[in-house]
C-alpha cells in the first residue's frame, strides 16, 4: 500500500459551536457522540469526524490522517525527519493512531488498521 490521506478530523473544546458552524457552512450532520467524545460527520461519508479535545490537551485543530502499513516505522521515519509527537500512539481497539507535528509546525495524523488476532 502507498501511504495516502484517508480521513480528516476537527478537534475542539466546543463541539456544539463547531457543529453549528460546519453544519451551517457545509450542511453537515453529525452522528451520535461516542464515549470518547467523538462524532462522525455524516456529510463527509466515512471520511471525517469531530472530536471533543478537552481530555487530550484542549487544543483546536483540523488535521488530515495518512493510512500506513507500519505505524511504528512511520513514526520513527517522521521523527528522524524532524517531526514531534503531539498525541502519543493510541490503540482504540480497532486502529492505532497518533498526531505528529512537522518541522514547520503543521499537525497531521497517522493511522494503521489492526489485524484480527
Helix amount, in percent?
10-25%
- Describe the largest sheet: 7 strands, mixed
Helix-strand makeup class: alpha/beta
Shape: globular
Strand order of the largest sheet: 2-3-1-4-7-6-5
Radius of gyration: 14 Å
End-to-end separation:
21 Å
Stretches where pLDDT is under 50 for at least 5 consecutive residues are none
- Tally of DSSP helical segments: 2
Please report the total strand number as a whole number: 7
Strand percentage lies at 35-45%
Q: What's the average pLDDT? A: 88
Structure description:
- The protein has 117 residues and is an alpha/beta fold.
- 19% of the residues lie in helices and 39% in strands.
- It has a 7-stranded mixed sheet with strand order 2-3-1-4-7-6-5, covered by helices on one side.
- The longest helix has 12 residues, at 15-26.
- The radius of gyration is 14 Å and the shape is globular.
Main traits of this protein?
117 residues, seven-stranded mixed sheet, 2 helices, 39% strand, globular
List the helices and strands and how they pair.
Blueprint: E1 4-12, H1 15-26, E2 38-40, E3 48-52, E4 61-67, H2 71-80, E5 84-91, E6 95-101, E7 107-113
Parallel strand pairs: 1-3, 4-7
Antiparallel strand pairs: 1-4, 2-3, 5-6, 6-7
Amino acid at each position: 500500500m502507498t501511504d495516502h490521506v484517508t480521513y480528516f478530523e476537527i478537534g475542539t473544546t466546543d463541539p456544539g459551536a463547531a457543529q453549528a458552524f460546519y453544519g451551517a457552512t457545509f450542511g453537515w450532520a453529525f452522528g451520535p457522540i461516542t464515549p470518547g467524545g467523538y462524532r462522525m460527520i455524516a456529510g463527509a461519508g466515512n471520511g471525517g469526524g469531530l472530536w471533543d479535545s478537552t481530555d487530550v490537551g484542549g487544543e483546536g485543530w483540523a488535521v488530515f490522517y495518512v493510512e500506513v502499513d507500519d505505524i511504528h516505522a512511520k513514526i520513527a521515519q517522521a521523527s528522524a525527519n524532524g517531526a514531534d509527537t503531539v498525541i502519543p500512539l493510541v490503540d482504540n481497539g480497532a486502529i492505532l493512531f497518533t498526531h505528529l507535528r512537522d518541522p514547520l509546525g503543521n499537525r497531521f495524523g497517522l493511522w494503521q488498521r489492526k489485524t484480527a488476532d
